[in-house]
Every structure is written in structure tokens, then in C-alpha cells.
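Good morning C.,

I know you're traveling, so I'll keep this short. The sequence:
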Amino acid sequence: MAKFYIHPTAEVGSLADKQVLDLTAELSNMTIENDLRRQLQENIKRLRDMGTHRGRRHAMGLPVRGQRTRTQTATATKLNKVERYG
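The C-alpha cells, ready to paste straight into the viewer:
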């Protein structure tokens, strides 16, 4: 916002056309939401296809970063479902 001199409480309707075009041009250069999710899924799929340890842990829905598995794996199994439901 500081780059384009836009007040933090300004509404989109009150912006000038030039400001809107500048914002649109800047956002088109960024990687945003769906692109990032697709990139994350591709990275996990690549790990699974290569057969790495991390890829196998993702495939099984187990903790990937060395957390203990004897107890308390509920959170990891919830968070590791990115690839399956995406």
C-alpha cells in the first residue's frame, strides 16, 4: 500500500483508475492463492513419485518433520491431508 500511496482505510470505489490499474499490474506479477496451492501439491506429488522418506510420510498421512508417532499424531494426520483433498 505504501508503494502506491493508498491510505489503509481507503475503499476500492474511492481509488483512481490509475491506482487500480497499478494494483492490478502488481498483483498479476505475484503468485497468489490457487497458484500457491497448486505449487504445494505438485511439490508433494514430486516427493511421492521419487519415493523419498518425506513423500512416503505424506502419502501415509503421518508426521513428515520428525515428530513422535507413539502418541499425539492426530494433528499431523489432519494437517497432512493437503494432497489428498486438494
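Safe travels,
E.
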